[in-house]
Amino acid sequence: MPGSWLNGTMPSTEVVSSSPEETMEIGRQLASRLCAPVLVLLFGELGSGKTTITKGIISGLGVAREEEVTSPTFTLVHMFRDHVRVFHVDLYRVEGFHDLESLALEDAFAQPAVVIIEWAERFTLRTDWPQVAIHLKHVEADTRRITITIPDL
Fold first, then answer.
1. Which of 45, 110, 113, 39 is nearest to 79 (CA)?
2. 39 pairs with which residues across the strands?
3. Structural domain of residue 105, as residue ranges?
4. Confidence of residue 4 (pLDDT cuts 50, 70, 90)
5. N or C: which end of the chain has fewer CB within 10 A?
6. Can you say how many angstroms the Cα of residue 40 is from the centroid of all Cα atoms in its chain?
7. What beta strand segments (E) does 1-50 contain?
8. What is the pLDDT of residues 54-111, one digit of tens each?
9. pLDDT digits (tens, 9 = 90+) for 107-146
10. At what angle do helices 20-31 and 50-61 cross, to 10 degrees?
11. Quick check: is 8 in a domain?
12. For residue 71, what are the contacts with CB-CB under 8 A and spacing of at least 6?
């Protein structure tokens, strides 16, 4: 994995990670480019590394250690607060707009924050915040193909 993969001007970058540690490092590198308000949309099948890259992003932002970041599959939303507000949202169990509404995500968008959403294809709320899209795909065992689309942040 090249260390300078985020330094380019390409709006979309593809990297291959061969371990969870590399996936977290990709998240840490991405965190250095994020500035609230921003919406980070994570796409990928179950077990593709969405929570793993989120651990890297959140630790890279300096709001929690990697081991403190867990999937909010059952609580649906975790909030971290330090010098920046970070919301980690998991929409795996959300089945429709009513379920999404019940999460009160408007609060996350009330002030500048970094909002990271797993299962982003289920996110239907509108926002004019800049968006980073991350698509994670299994290649084999621990290998993932990660495509990151970054607007000018």
1. 113
2. 115, 131
3. 14-149
4. very low
5. C
6. 5
7. 12-17, 38-43
8. 999 999 999 988 888 877 655 566 677 778 899 998 888 676 555 555 556 777 788 8
9. 778 889 999 999 999 887 778 899 999 999 999 888 999 9
10. 40
11. no
12. 51, 90, 118
> How many CB atoms neighbour CB 23 within 10 A?
26
Say how many Å lie between the first and final Cα of the chain, rounded: 23
Tokens representing 67?
A: 């081991």
> Cβ distance 16 to 146 under 8 Å?
yes
The reported pLDDT for the residue numbered 39 is 93
Please check whether residue 1 lies inside any domain of the structure.
no
What total of structural domains would you count in the chain? 1
Name the strands in the sheet holding 38-43, side by side, starting at the edge strand that comes first in the sequence. 12-17, 143-149, 131-140, 38-43, 114-118, 85-90, 77-81
Half-sphere exposure of 135 (CA within 13 A, CB side): 8
Is the Cβ–Cβ distance between 53 and 132 less than 8 Å? no
Distance CA 132, CA 53 (A): 13
Kindly state whether residue 3 falls inside one of the protein's structural domains. Answer: no
pLDDT on residue 125: 76
The CATH number of residue 121's host domain is 3.40.50.300
In a domain, 9, yes or no: no
